[in-house]
Structures are given as C-alpha cells and as structure tokens.
Amino acid sequence: MKVGIIGTGYVGLPTGVGLAELGNQVICIDREPRKIEALQAGKITLYEDGLEELFHKNVKEGRLHFTTSMKEGISDADLVIIAVGTPPHPVTKEADMKYIHAAATELAEYLTDYTVVATKSTVPVGTGDVVEGLIAKKNPNADFDVVSLPEFLREGFAVYDFFHPDRIVVGANTEKARNVIKELYKPFEGKTNMLFVKRRSSETIKYASNAFLAIKIHYINEMANFCEKTGADITEVAKGMGLDTRIGNRFLNPGPGYGGSCFPKDTMAMAYMARQNDVDMTLIKAAIDGNAKRKQQMAERILESVKSIENPKIAVLGLAFKDGTDDCRESPAMEIIGNLLEVNANITAYDPKAMVTSKLLIGDKIKYAENMYDALKDADVLAILTEWQEFKTLNLQKAASLMRHKNIVDCRNLLNADTAKNNGFKYQGIGR
Ligand code: NAD
User: Fold this and answer.
1) Which active-site residues does the annotation give?
2) What is the structure's pLDDT at 235?
3) Of all atoms in ligand 1, which is nearest to the CA of residue 153?
4) Considering the entire predicted model, what is its pTM?
5) pLDDT tier, 72 (very low <50, low <70, confident <90, very high otherwise)
6) Domains and CATH numbers, the chain
7) Ligand 1 contact, 4 CB (< 6 A)
8) Which string of DSSP letters, residue by residue, matches 186-209?
C-alpha cells in the first residue's frame, strides 16, 4: 500500500518506519525543512529504542522516503495518515486544532483516486466531521473517507508497541474505508484485538484511556501521601493492590506527577470537552489540579532538605518525562526545576538522553554534567526525577564521597533506602 504520513514527530516517524517495515511504500511529510533534510541525510531526529536501525534498513531497501512537499507525499497515496501535534490552546487549554486544520486543507487538493484519510493525532470528538468538511470544501471532487485511527504507543517503546499493539482501534463510517485499514493491519490479524467502532467512539476512546491512566497515577500519588502520614509503605500497598486483576499492577508507581506530551494536554482537552457538553467530570478535574500541586510539593521537598544550607547546590538526575525517551515536553523535571529556579537554586543535571531537548526548553539556566557522578560533585542534595534504570546502578559509596551534604530526595523510589542510609545519607523516597 502507498502511505503518506503528515508529521514526522514521536508518532509519525515510528509509524512511518513500522509501516515501511511491513512492506508498504511510505512517504513521510513534514513542514519543517530541517527535520526532513536531516532524515533525507540519514540522521534520525528523535530517540526511540530500536528506531534508528529499522529506519536505515527501510531507507536502504527503498520503502521509506521523506519530503516537505505535500504534493509529492499525497498524490499517489492510498492512505494518508495525519500525525501532527494537537497541543493545548494557550488560553482555553482545549486541543489546539490549527495543525490538523492546516494539514486537512493542504492535503485536499492533491487527492486523486479514492483515498482514506486517517487521523492518528489525538483529536476531540467530532474532528472527523470537521476534517471531512475541510477536504470537501477545498476539493469538492475528491473521493475519500475520513477515519479515526488513534495511536496508543508509549514513548520509549514506540517500535515495540508498533509491532505488538495491545489493540488497534478503528473509527470508520464506511465499509470501503474499513477494508483499507483491514488490509493495512493484515499482518496483525489474529495477533491483536482489532476494534471497529463509530468514528466518534474511536476519538473518545483515546481521551477516555489517557484520562483514566492519568487518574490512576494521581490516585496512587495521593495514596503515597497517605502512606507517608501513616507509616505504611506505598510500594507494598501498590504490590498488594496490583495483584487484583480488576485493578492491574501497571500505573501504580508513585512519583513526581504525570507529564509528557499526552496526559497533561489530553486531560485538559477532555475537561474542556466535558464543560462544552455540560458534563461534570470531577475525577479528571481532581487529577489535573492534584498533578499540578504534586510537582510544587516535590520542589518544596527538595528545598526543605537543604533549608539550613546557604546557596545549596542541587544535583538533578533525570530531565525526560520518563525513561526511554528524550522528550521533555511537560516533564515533571522541567516544572520542578522551574520551581527551584524561582528561588535561584544552583542546579547541575544529568540525563542519559534528554540533555539536548532540555536545553531547547530551559537553555543554560542550569548546568549540565557529563555523567551522573559529575552532577553530584559538591552537591548538597541529589534529586532523582526520572526513572532511568541507569540511576539504579548509582554507587552510593562513591556518591557519598562526592557530595558536600548527604541528602537524597528520590522522587521515583529507584534507590534502596537501606543502602542509602548505611552510606550516611538522609534518604527520602515517595510514600514510604
Ligand atoms: P510532534 O510535535 O512530535 O510531531 C508533529 C509533527 O508534525 C512536527 O514535526 C511538525 O513539524 C509536523 N507538522 C505540523 N503541521 C504540519 C503540516 N501541516 N504539514 C506537515 N507537517 C506538519 O507530535 P507527536 O508527539 O508525534 O504527536 C502527534 C499527535 O499524536 C498528537 O496529537 C499527540 O497527542 C498524538 N499522540 C502522541 C503520542 C506520543 O507518545 N507522543 C502517543 C499517542 C498519540
């Protein structure tokens, strides 16, 4: 199948590479010339485990191409996938649809034979109708169907998730469109759940899922606060809860709050849609408010640990919003650092993958270290903000010898509390 993908970000690029690997002819389109020039020159533009190798393989085998030209990418395509950003609107916090609307309008004039236009971006319910209207207005003769094809990949596992999806949800209102998507996902037939639903249901499934996971994280964080007051240990509590298959053991890790390019914006967009439709969704509101407070609380906890020290030096391990990615968008680390900078904290940070992306967001307001031990030199507190497995290997004896004061605020419960205490650290984890 010939596939044109609009947007080569964290969703578009792994999707393009994955579909090429399945044997499709894929053209990835992006309006940022710098991205396309880099990809054409064989340079991958984001970090995802296993992506680079598959990218080179499929470029070499002639199935994967890159262009800034909508005409080149769309004209021959059987399927066009829209994977542009839907960031929060700066004022209303609803999903800002300007990139979707622009993509729909730009692609319309190049549609020739029957084409399925699939929206992979996370979009408000009813967007399929809007995209359909925009295309029909620009190109009244176009023969096309608009399908909702929400993406459920996890950053850091995008390649794995592409080839091993939990489920494929398709919101298509015509048989013809459903058949095109069935053909695309034929390699997954019998291996995963394929759910064909109404387009509006499909659009809602994505928001309902992300909001649910955000609420689950908020819940376990509140439970961690409760454990801190009562002497229970949240890791034991979460383990006990997770053994109940009705609850499940995932998303029960307490931490500094959820972040990333999806949960914060999707919960806000869902809350906006609820307001627009006069539906009171109190759980989502609570998660949004609680999550904002959470990051403030973590910053306060770090400052409290060094309150008696003049001009304390803070070592931060972890900048990405989670492990396995270089994505710092809405990362709790970015917000916590922002709070610490408000009181002129002196911060040195290290992240295995996200230092370049962090610099794009906060520049040189903090210092960057070459490795985790460099970050610790003369520090008065170590704050662990991302759950990189590398940080688990931190030699606490060496860490103790490098730091000026032995304080650890472990916002991810990565380190062994007893080992830290045995090495002279004042150790604070989460909920234990
Ligand atoms: P991104 O910002 O990484 O990438 C979007 C890309 O689209 C950018 O490269 C941008 O230049 C390009 N673009 C925007 N308008 C364009 C246009 N008119 N023509 C060509 N290119 C255009 O975004 P992302 O993280 O890949 O997310 C894309 C969508 O997928 C969002 O709606 C997001 O909510 C959803 N989503 C993201 C994830 C994730 O883990 N990042 C997971 C599931 C769903």
Assistant:
1) 262
2) 96
3) 42
4) 0.94
5) very high
6) 2-197 (3.40.50.720), 232-432 (3.40.50.720)
7) no
8) GGGTTTSEEEEE-HHHHHHHHHHH
